[in-house]
Amino acid sequence: MARWILSLSVLSCCWMMVSASSAPTCYNGSDTLQWYMDAIGETPCATYQRLRQICNDNYTTPTWAIDTPTDQCDDPLSTCCCNSIAWSIRMLCINCEWDEFGVGDPGHSAGAGAYYNYRWSTGVPNNGIYCGDGHNQTLPETLQQAVCDRGIRLGDFLYNIFWPDGSWYAHSRASFVSS
Ligand SMILES: *[C@@H]1O[C@H](CO)[C@@H](O)[C@H](O)[C@H]1NC(C)=O
Ligand SMILES: *[C@@H]1O[C@H](CO)[C@@H](O)[C@H](O)[C@H]1NC(C)=O
Ligand SMILES: *[C@@H]1O[C@H](CO)[C@@H](O)[C@H](O)[C@H]1NC(C)=O
C-alpha cells in the first residue's frame, strides 16, 4: 500500500482551486487514483480537461469504455495537449476510468511510440495533423502562466515522469510518490 502514499508538493503558484467542471469520474468504486485526488483535489480526468480547455473551451474529457480507443492531441490550438505533462495526466485518467480491478489492477500502460501517436490528430503517424515535437517535462512559459492563472494544480511529479521512447508505465506509479 505504501506506493499509494503520496508526498508531493505542487507548484506554489497553483494552490487556488477553481471548481471542477464535469469530467468523467473514475471507475465506480475505484480508489487506485485516490492518492492523486487527495493531493490535487480532483481526478486526473478533470485536470486533463481543464488543461486542454485553456486551448479549446469546448474540450471535455471523454468517457472511455475499457480497452476502447482513447483520444489524441487534436485541438486546433494544440499547445495544451502537445506536451508530456498532458500526456501523463491523460494516462492517469485512463487508469482511473479503466480501474475495474481496483488496487489489484496491474494498471494500463502505453508502449513505445504511444506518445508520438498521440501527437497526431488521428492517432496514426503521417495521418492528419502533427502537433509537433511538443514540450517534454516542461510547458511553454505562456501556457504555464495560464495554468497558474486558472488555478490548475499540476503536481511536480508530472514534470518528472517521462520515457524518451514515448511509452508510459503504470507500474512505475511508485516513482511518482517519491519524486
Ligand atoms: C456504484 O457502485 C455502488 C456499489 O457497488 C452502486 O450502489 C452504485 O449504483 C454504482 N453506481 C453506478 C453509477 O454504477
Ligand atoms: C467550440 O464550439 C463553438 C460552437 O460550436 C465553435 O464555433 C468553435 O469553433 C469551437 N471551438 C473549437 C476550438 O473547436
Ligand atoms: C519529446 O519526446 C518525444 C517522444 O520521445 C519526441 O518524439 C520529441 O521529439 C521530444 N520533443 C522534444 C521537443 O524534444
Keywords:
mainly alpha; 32% helix; disordered N terminus; binds 2-acetamido-2-deoxy-beta-D-glucopyranose; signal
What features would you describe in this structure?
With 179 residues, the protein is mostly helical. It has one domain. The chain has seven helices and no strands. Helix 2 packs across helix 3. The longest helix is centred in the middle third of the chain and has 14 residues. The two termini are 17 Å apart. It binds 2-acetamido-2-deoxy-beta-D-glucopyranose (3 copies). The site of one 2-acetamido-2-deoxy-beta-D-glucopyranose (NAG) has 2 residues, from loops.
CA-based gyration radius: 15 Å
Structural class: mainly alpha
H-E string: HHHHHHH
Which overall shape is indicated by the principal axes computed on the Cα atoms? Answer: globular
Number of strands: 0
Bound molecules: 2-acetamido-2-deoxy-beta-D-glucopyranose
In total, how many domains does the architecture comprise? Answer: 1
Q: List low-pLDDT spans.
A: 1-20
Instruction: Please report the distance between the alpha carbons of the first and last residues.
Output: 17 Å
| Oligomeric status | single chain
Percent of residues in beta strands: under 5%
Which range best describes the helical content: under 10%, 10-25%, 25-40%, 40-55%, 55-70% or over 70%? 25-40%
Q: Count of helices? A: 7
Whole-number mean pLDDT: 86
Largest sheet: none
